[in-house]
Amino acid sequence: MGISFTSRLFKEIREKRGLCYHIRSNSNNWADVGNWGIYAGVATAKVHEAVAAIMYELSLAFEKGVTDEEVTVAKKRLKTIMAFKSEDPEFMVEYYGRQEVFGMPIMTLSENLAKIDAVTSDEINALVRKYFLTQNLNLALVWNRGEDAKLQTLLKI
C-alpha cells in the first residue's frame, strides 16, 4: 500500500488527490503481536477527505485485491531497501539479533530475499481479506481539535 513514490497510497492520496504532503504504511512485528498502519501528514482542513480516501483504497484492496504488478513493484522496492540497508552494520545486527531473540531459525539475507520473491498476490489478498476488517481499525490523530464523531463513521471497510 505504501512505501515511497510507487505505492498505491502515494499515487492516489498525495499525487492524484493532493490530500497530504506525506503518506506511507508501515508494520511492527514482535513474537506474539504486531500491527500494520498508515501514516499521513494532512492539513487539518483535509483530514475528513483524506481519511475517506484512505478508507476507499483499503476497501478497494479488500474487494478487488492487489495486482500482480503491484506485488512485483513492492518486491523490487523491498529488496532494494534491504540491499542498501545491508551495508549498515547496525541494520545487520538488528536483522540477525531479531531472529535470535525471537527464537527463529537464522536466515541469511539471501534466503530472506528468496522468500520475498516467493510471495504471491493471492497470498497477500488472503491476508487483506483476513485483516482489513472494520473491527480491526483504529485512528489516531495529532491535531488541534477535539474528538470528531464523523471520523469514526469513516472507519469502515
Sheet-strand content, in percent, reads: 5-15%
Order of helices and strands: HEEHHHHHH
Tell me the CATH topology. Cytochrome Bc1 Complex, Chain A, domain 1
Class in CATH?
Answer: Alpha Beta
Explain what you see.
With 157 residues, the chain is mostly helical. The protein has a single domain, classed as Cytochrome Bc1 Complex, Chain A, domain 1. Helices cover 54% and strands 10% of the residues. The chain has seven helices and two strands; from the N terminus they run αββαααααα. The protein has helices spanning 8-16, 47-64, 68-85, 89-101, 109-118, 121-131, 149-154, and strands spanning 22-29, 34-41. The protein has a two-stranded antiparallel sheet. Strand 1 (22-29) and strand 2 (34-41) form a beta hairpin. The radius of gyration is 17 Å and the shape is globular. The mean pLDDT is 92.
Salient structural properties:
Cytochrome Bc1 Complex, Chain A, domain 1; two-stranded antiparallel sheet; 157 residues; mainly alpha; single chain
